[in-house]
Amino acid sequence: MPSIMKTYIDSIAGSGKTFRYTESDPIGFLPDKKTLHIQARGGIYSEGPAAELEMGHRYLTIMINFFGVPSFKGLFIGVRNQMPDKAQEIKEQALQRAKELAKTY
C-alpha cells in the first residue's frame, strides 16, 4: 500500500470523524457507503504462496469495516511487469472485470 494511502487512513480514523465509541463497541459512521479498492500489483497475492504476504487489502478491509462500510470489494490487476508479453491481455481482462463489477455494485 502506498504510504500516502496509509497516511490518509490514519488521518480519518478518529473518534468523532469516522466512528464513535459506545459502552460495548465502536460504531462506524458510514453504514450507507460502498467502497471499491482498485490496485495494480507486481505479483500474484490473492492465491498461492504469496497470499499470506498480502497486507494492503487486509488492512483496508479491517479499517473500512471499522468505519461501518457494509460493502467492500477489491479489483486487482497483477503481474503486468512480470509478464510483459501478456500485459495488454491482463489490462483488457481487468477492464472487463471492472465493467462487470460496475453492473453489480
TrEMBL record:
Annotated InterPro entries: Flavodoxin_fold, Flavoprotein-like_sf, FMN-dep_NADH:Q_OxRdtase_AzoR1
Gene3D superfamilies found in the cross-reference section: 3.40.50.360
Domain called Flavodoxin-like fold: residue spans: 1-100
Name the record gives this protein: FMN-dependent NADH-azoreductase
Organism: Jeotgalibacillus soli
